[in-house]
Write a sequence for this structure.
């Protein structure tokens, strides 16, 4: 009788002596199991390559050189396979010879003594094949798991690629949006600058043209009004450039210790005059306020701008609160802002109970030239200036507002960590005129500015030497020419003014230097730019300020 079963479940029989092979095959067939009788160990190994569920082997067959091939096959089984073997032995023989070695190598050997009972043989074969089938099931599950893992890996790779593509698209969209916003801001900025400067230039050019015409006709009456008109327009232009530099964080700051309560109280009368009679001003100043570190002039300008904005938000009147307090900003708060460090800060806040602002306006409140006021009633630079001033001062500014409830603007400035403040000495009025022989070296690349500075100092009796750049000034500094003060623009072509001062002090130790600058990135924070015996004024400056600085520095 031939039984058709999968090759993987065959019983391979090897009993070369006697009729054990035929008897075992007959018993197995009657029990429903398929078997193959192999005449030699070599034939058994060949059949193993095709597949087997069980080996039924006589112990005496495990001899000869072909035994190593069987051992090699068994050692190279995959991890899921543990081929069962029923070893036919004689009574007491399971502990001897190759059978013991095979048991040590496999660990899945069962011993059956001859003569054996058919039921015992069938029972052992049945149990061994059940175990073998579980091995095949484990193999199939491993295959399924491997396939699932492969499909999962493929899915993950696909998802990863999709995420990368989506991320790249989002970055592209974000960059496009940022570029669009940047161009919108630039357009708004340039449009605002053009509008305001055109108005100011009209006042300057127009007043100068009228002066020229009247002087040409010999009309010398009422010239002061034209001069005042031109100066007023020029001062407005200067204020505009200062605000733009403040917004861009490129203005020259003279940071120092500031008693904020004293500063606020000193401005009380000015703030009150800036308000309508229907607005109540309430100052809530912390008596134990820390000393702040800031440029006092810029701080005054910021406070005045905040008060004026609050006033305009209360056209029907209301209450305006100016408050100071100590604040400790934690890392949780400062992590959201790139230039802000955790630590101690002095806060100045201005609160009104006016119309308030929607979130869309708050989001743009610090943009230059953005304003909700009617045309002609605001430039839109006040808050942008405060924003730039706070960032350049290593501080922070925030806005909280609700429609019809009011607005609070908070300005945070770092706590001063230097020496305690000393009482300022009363200023001594210096005579502006020069003493005999006092000489100033003027280095300025702009011919108009150089001519005007030379003319003003010449009228006061100062001797002066002029140069258009650092290369022309170095030989003068390295000569016997008397130089009491070096006045130099910071932004010179080639060697800048600060470098020129260093060279000058190599030739003339202790040389006093007055820098004049319209914009210099490295001079933005004076504390890290100026050494002892150096001061700075920013363009445009009044000649009264220039001559006072010259007199002060030379007489020091």
């Amino acid at each position: 009788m031939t039984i058709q079963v999968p090759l993987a479940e065959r019983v391979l029989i090897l009993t070369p002596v006697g009729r054990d092979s035929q008897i075992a095959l007959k018993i197995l067939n009657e029990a429903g199991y398929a078997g193959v009788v192999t005449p030699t160990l070599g034939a058994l190994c060949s059949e193993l390559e095709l597949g087997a569920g069980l080996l039924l082997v006589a112990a005496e067959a495990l001899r000869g050189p072909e035994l190593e091939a069987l051992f090699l096959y068994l050692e190279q089984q995959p991890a899921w396979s543990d081929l069962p073997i029923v070893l036919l032995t004689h009574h007491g023989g399971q502990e001897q010879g190759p059978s013991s070695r095979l048991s040590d190598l496999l660990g899945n050997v069962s011993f059956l003594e001859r003569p054996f009972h058919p039921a015992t043989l069938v029972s052992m074969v049945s149990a061994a094949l059940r175990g073998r089938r579980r091995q095949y099931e484990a193999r199939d599950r491993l295959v399924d798991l491997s396939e699932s893992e492969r499909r999962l890996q493929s899915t993950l790779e696909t998802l990863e690629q999709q995420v990368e593509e989506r991320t790249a698209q989002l970055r592209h969209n974000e960059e496009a949006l940022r570029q669009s916003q940047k161009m919108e801001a630039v357009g708004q900025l340039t449009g605002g600058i053009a509008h305001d400067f055109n108005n100011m230039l009209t006042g300057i050019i127009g007043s100068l043209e009228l002066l020229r015409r009247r002087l040409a006709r010999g009309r010398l009456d009422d010239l002061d009004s034209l001069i005042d008109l031109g100066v007023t327009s020029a001062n407005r232009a200067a204020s505009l450039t200062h605000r733009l530099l403040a917004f861009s964080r490129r203005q020259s700051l003279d940071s120092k210790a500031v008693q904020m309560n004293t500063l606020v109280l000193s401005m009380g009368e000015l703030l009150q005059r800036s308000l309508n009679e229907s607005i109540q001003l309430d100052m809530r100043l912390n008596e134990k306020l820390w000393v702040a570190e800031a440029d006092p002039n810029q701080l005054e300008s910021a406070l005045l701008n905040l008060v004026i904005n609050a006033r305009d938000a209360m056209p029907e009147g209301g209450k305006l609160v100016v408050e100071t307090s100590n604040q400790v900003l934690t890392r949780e708060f400062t992590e959201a802002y790139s230039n802000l460090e955790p630590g101690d800060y002095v806060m100045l806040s201005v609160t009104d109970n006016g119309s308030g602002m929607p979130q869309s306006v708050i989001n743009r409140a610090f943009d230059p030239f953005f304003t909700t006021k009617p045309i002609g009633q605001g430039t839109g630079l006040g808050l942008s200036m405060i924003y730039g001033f706070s960032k350049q001062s290593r501080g922070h500014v925030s806005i909280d507002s609700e429609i019809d409830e009011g607005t609070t603007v908070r300005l945070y400035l770092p706590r001063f960590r230097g020496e305690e403040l000393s009482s300022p000495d009363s200023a001594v009025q210096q005579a502006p005129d020069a003493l005999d022989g006092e000489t100033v070296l003027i280095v300025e690349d702009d011919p108009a500015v150089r001519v005007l500075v030379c003319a003003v100092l010449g009228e006061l009796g100062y001797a002066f030497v002029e140069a258009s750049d650092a290369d022309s000034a170095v030989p003068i500094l390295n000569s016997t020419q008397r130089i009491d003060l070096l006045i130099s623009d910071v932004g010179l072509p080639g060697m800048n003014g600060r470098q020129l001062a260093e060279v000058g002090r190599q030739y003339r130790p202790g040389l006093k230097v007055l820098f004049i600058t319209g914009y210099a990135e490295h001079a933005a924070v004076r504390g890290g730019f100026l050494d002892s015996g150096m001061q700075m004024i920013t363009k445009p400056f009044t000649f009264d300020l220039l001559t006072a600085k010259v007199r002060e520095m030379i007489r020091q």
